[in-house]
Specification:
The chain is an alpha/beta fold. The protein has 2 domains: 175 residues, Flavin prenyltransferase-like (Rossmann fold, 3-Layer(aba) Sandwich); 204 residues, Rossmann fold, CATH 3.40.50.10300. Helix content is 32%, strand content 25%. It is built from 13 helices and 19 strands. The strands form 5 sheets. The protein has an 8-stranded mixed beta sheet, with helices on both faces. Strands 2-1-3-4-5 form a 5-stranded parallel beta sheet, with helices on both faces. Helix 3 crosses helix 5. The longest helix has 14 residues. The protein is elongated and about 75 Å long. The N terminus is likely disordered.
Length: 397
Amino acid sequence: MNTKTAKLNKTVLLGITGGIAAYKMSELIRMYKKQRFNVKVIATPNAFNFVTELTLATLSDNKVYSDNFDIKEYSPEHISLADEGDILVIAPASANTISKIADGICDNLLTSVTCAFNKPIIIAPAMNTNMWENKFIQANLKKLKSNGFNVLEPESGFLACGTEGKGRLCSLEKILDKTVEILEHNQPLKDKKIVITAGGTIEKLDPVRYISNFSSGKMGTALADNAYMMGAEVELISTFDIERPYKVTKVLSAEDMLTAVEGSKKNSDCVIMSAAVADYRAENYAEQKMKKTNDDKITISFVKNPDILKTISENKDGVKIVGFCAESENLLDNAKTKIKTKGCDYIIANDISRKDIGFSSDENEVYIIDRDLKTKHLKKAAKDKIAKQILEYIFGE
């Protein structure tokens, strides 16, 4: 364990679900208290089958919360607790609770608090191996990860059900270290404002048709989520609808995005152009739906879109500019050419010809290139991890 003594006045909400590993939470509470955290326990009704309310209350030195409402309280607990907590840690997280959270079901206090919580959340699953490998559970975990949850995967070993396999709760030290990292060591971007673009721009042809690309926006969203968790004031300029605790500006076309980026760049410290911007748009937009004719071919004239990255790099005004380079061949050569022609501070290059990374994938592998052509390789990992590494690199220079 490599934790340091934590600062005072940090409140950990510890959500305990009904699993055999719930008994370990007594020790985790002791570890949190030793690090000088204030701990408030939220337990599902089934959690009390494995650990007593009196034990949890005594160790945490706080009331244990379980029912949705308490007549002694002036406000609904799921709102007041969500406001009080600096981080929510759910351990052990059962398959049942994971699935409820992923689907927005709020049928107990813990799931209600989670739904209302807009600060960092750690999920530490523990369950039978077959349950862990169930495709629906894995799909729900992916959904949580893609929405900024920190998932600490279970370990392999001997399970309470008498079998060997993956499903044991990860070590308590790992949970503690992650909590301290997020609360105490993971705020390097405090007082920074970062503008991030995401998704593929949409260029209309007529009222029902458009051209676009395959960008899912996952990389840009992961960057925005991580920047927010690292303490930055974040604006995500996105081509799709998404709800986040930070500012989200919805745009469609390249011209719309340029207007939004230029407006927000003035008061920012960094702009990260993760969006896949269309190079061309239709020269003439058809106000009415274009009708099919007897001709076997149709010709549409296109004109160049504004080059957003180059435009905002021409007058930086002290703002750090980061571009993305999606290539299907000669990745590094094309990326180095691009950073020279665009004038930005960094280029993030990724290979879209690979099926295991890039567009729509949950994983990526990239190269970070600076203006001196110094290159940093980030090996294949989840986009959430890649995003964190990118931010640490470009702001740690």
